[in-house]
Structure formats: C-alpha cells, structure tokens
Specification:
Layout (H helix, E strand, L loop, with lengths): L4 E5 L10 E4 L17 E2 L7 H9 L4 H14 L5 H9 L2 E5 L9 H20 L15
Parallel strand pairs: 1-4, 2-3, 2-4
Helix pairs in contact: 1-2
Length: 141
C-alpha cells in the first residue's frame, strides 16, 4: 500500500489537502497560537530527545551523527510511531516542524521510519496468522 506523508514548516499556511496535521517538535513554535495552526495534534513522543536535539542545535554533533542517534531512538521505542501510523493509514499525513530547514531536521528521518514501519506491518498482514484449521469428521465404525 502507498502512504502519503508530507513534510512542512509550521509557519506555512494550512491547506485543505494537508490531511492530518501533526506538529512533531518538543517545543512549541515561537509566536504561534494553537488556533492559527489548524493542528490535528501536537505529538512530542516521536521527536528527538531533548539531549539529542540540544547537541544537534548547538553544533556539537554532525547531521550524520544526529540522524544515526535519532534512528536509534526510534528503533528503541517503536511504539512511539503507532499514533502517526494510524493517521497515515487514514489518508494524507502532514508532519510539521518549526525548524527552518526541513531537509536538515528530524522529519525526513521520521518519515523514513514511518514508511518502513508501515511497510513491515503491511507485509506481516499478508502472511497467515496461523496455519489453517481443518475440521475432521470421525466416524465410528
């Protein structure tokens, strides 16, 4: 199955075709009122940990190190993806961040992890849960 997960800055205007609009940042965006964002949800659990976010924004780690560690955080807590996966299964999902440069943020990594988790779950659904059961009729005789 194909899923549409779009990445946007929270400062970009909402459009009708955004689908579910989820802010995936630990911190609330400066200067924005909740009502003005047309959010479906503010979901912090899938964003990078505060320590990892701080290290990356202070420049003490490179983007490659940040990406590897964030993938590790997502791998260690796969349940944090479940609410986002539910939204993606219902239709278009727009992930929002206040970060200035989306390509250098956590959102592309999160989208990649979501698509992989959705694909894995879809593949598991095509396999039978157990072997088929057959009813045997026995006759006395």
């Amino acid at each position: 199955m194909s899923y549409e997960i779009v990445l946007k800055r929270v400062y970009a205007p909402a459009t009708e075709d955004d689908g579910a609009r989820i802010l995936v940042d630990r911190l609330w965006p400066r200067g924005k009122r909740r009502e003005s964002l047309a959010l479906t949800d503010w979901y912090r659990d899938a964003s990078p940990s505060p320590a990892l976010r701080r290290q990356y924004h202070q420049g003490t780690i490179s983007h490659a190190v940040f990406a590897a560690r964030y993938r590790g955080e997502l791998r260690d807590a796969p349940e944090c993806l479940v609410p986002l996966m539910r939204h993606a299964r219902r239709g278009r999902l727009t992930l929002l961040t206040a970060t200035r440069h989306i390509d250098d943020s956590h959102l592309p990594i999160l989208r990649e992890a979501l698509l992989a988790a959705l694909s894995d779950e879809d593949a598991a659904d095509t396999e039978p849960a157990s072997s088929p059961c057959y009813r045997h009729e026995f006759r006395d005789g």
